[in-house]
Amino acid sequence: MIAKGTLDSSFLKAEIEFIKQNGVTKSRSTSGQYFRFDKASAGYYRNRCSAIIFKVLQHEFMLTKKITFENTKPLMSLPFLQSVLVPEACVQLLQQDYNDISYNYAKEILFNSQNFGSRVHHEPKDEDDDL
Questions:
Q1: Long-range contacts for 60-65 (Cβ within 8 Å, ≥24 apart)?
Q2: What is the pLDDT of residues 106-121, one digit of tens each?
Q3: Which of 5, 110, 112, 126 has the fewest C-beta atoms under 10 angstroms from its C-beta?
Q4: Which residues have CB under 8 Å from 46's CB, separation 6+?
Q5: What are the C-alpha distances in Å from 106 to residues 58, 63, 98, 120?
Q6: How confident is the model at residue 72 (pLDDT cuts 50, 70, 90)?
Q7: What separation in angstroms does the CA of 24 have from each of 6, 33, 77?
Q8: Percent share of the chain, pLDDT over 70
Q9: Rounded (to 5) percent helix, strand, coil in the chain
Q10: CA torsion 121→52→17→4, rounded to 10°?
Q11: In angstroms, how far is the first alpha carbon of the chain from the final one?
Q12: Distance between CA 85 and CA 2 in Å, rounded?
């Protein structure tokens, strides 16, 4: 598992590198999160799918206490889910959708599909918020 260090994650490496270069305080700030938004985006899947994945991961890992700050530090648990596990899940979904393509190719698709996803998948209206 990524949180326990037994599985490698390029998204976690990027987060840790940002913290090393900018400090924990800036990494948790709004501007720090905005700066890294594209790197942890759900790409084609966009916000609605990202929110669904986030809720599933939150239920599976945080509410059951499988992930705590001790597992995710220096990141807090919620940012760890959003910035590391959600994009990792999106990469894995792409690998499945494209019949087991490589991790790096799926990650490339994820990043390159951000504009397409924002045009195809509209932002939910208020009545759609109950995911």
A1: 61/3, 61/85
A2: 988 888 877 666 556 5
A3: 126
A4: 117, 118, 120, 121
A5: 23, 29, 8, 19
A6: confident
A7: 23, 11, 14
A8: 66
A9: 70, 0, 30
A10: -150
A11: 26
A12: 8
